[in-house]
Design goal:
The chain is of the alpha/beta class.
Length: about 220
């Protein structure tokens, strides 16, 4: 984790809810197959807080072997590009002309200041949503509140019901909130395609003389 997050993370880690979550995870990793690997659960927080300009909030990690590596929507270079990310790339192509990444690894976005955060940071193999209601949602809400209060001029990109539920935590007078259905094949045609979130994000960043994201 990047040291810029330490004051926030140390505060959250000391709270009763997180101690309960830690106990649950300790048992879960011992008794089941959990993704991502332990050393990648907090990979989103290796992003320098002081460089964050865009926050993309996902749901929970991919639950198939080898796919989850701690960044929302992202997979390692060796993995096939997941259907949701294929749809994200399609929207970038339609919105901005082309997408930058050749694989499903979104580390290049992270390097540019995009925080790729899931609503729930762990999942049991082949059981989507299995770690919901264990405390991660409290942690994610605290993260959004902290970003809202401490960082100026952020773009919050909220796709799907879980992510969009966080919108009331964000001060629209300071930040840009972009909402749409999730890019999953089940919902992408219900309003994700054509949302123009990538060009809108860059337009907002440009208006504050902040670096645009090379999507």
């Amino acid at each position: 984790m990047h040291e810029s997050w330490k004051p926030f993370l140390n505060s959250e880690f000391a709270k009763p809810y997180f101690k309960e979550l830690s106990d649950f995870l300790h048992h879960a990793y011992q008794t089941a197959t959990i993704f991502p690997p332990k050393n990648q659960v907090f990979r989103a927080f290796t992003t320098d807080l002081n460089k964050v300009t865009v926050v993309i909030l996902g749901q929970d990690p991919y639950h198939t072997p080898g796919a989850a590596h701690g960044l929302a929507f992202s997979v390692p270079d060796s993995q096939p590009i997941p259907p949701s990310l294929i749809n994200i790339y399609k929207e970038i192509d339609a919105d901005c002309g082309s997408h930058h990444n050749q694989t499903g690894n979104l580390s290049s976005w992270q390097d540019q200041g995009v925080l790729l955060l899931n609503n729930v940071l762990t999942v049991e193999a082949h059981r989507a949503g299995s770690h919901r209601g264990k405390g991660w949602e409290i942690f994610t809400e605290a993260t959004i509140k902290y970003l809202n209060e401490t960082r100026p001029h952020l773009v919050f990109i909220l796709w799907g019901r879980d992510a969009r539920s966080k919108a009331p935590l964000i001060d629209e007078s300071k930040h840009l909130i972009l909402e749409s259905p999730h890019p999953s094949p089940l919902s992408a045609h219900a309003g994700f395609f054509g949302n123009h979130h990538f060009s809108q994000a860059n337009e907002f960043l440009r208006s504050f003389n902040l670096p645009e994201i090379n999507w």
